[in-house]
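thread: overnight batch results

M.L. [08:02]
morning all. the overnight job finished for the chain we discussed friday. pasting input first so we're all looking at the same thing
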Amino acid sequence: VRLVESGGGLVQTGGSLRLSCASSQFTFEDYNICWFRQVPGTEREFVGAVSRSGRKIKNSDTLRGRFTASRDRTKAYLQMSDLRPEDTGVYYCAARFERWDSVGVAQTDYTSWGPGTQVTVST
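M.L. [08:03]
and the structure it wrote out:
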């Protein structure tokens, strides 16, 4: 199962980016999707999750209000606003096949991962 993230890049402090996640190899709407990030010098952390239907969403408590996960039938999105230099890192989407809606936050819950997309926030 192959996932691909897009939309990363360089942005100034206070700016916004929207990341996308898609797959050309499986029926995307059958998968619950999660976003993680790895900031330099730290462990990979949960950012946001959206269930296969899109009706269940869980965003990180520490990032709430700035980062929001969403999706449609063919892509998942991570809307990021008010970006700060400490948000600089690699952002990953991950997927798991389930027959029901869920929004897991553990990395071990997910079986398929994208290569990540770099987000750099300048001062």
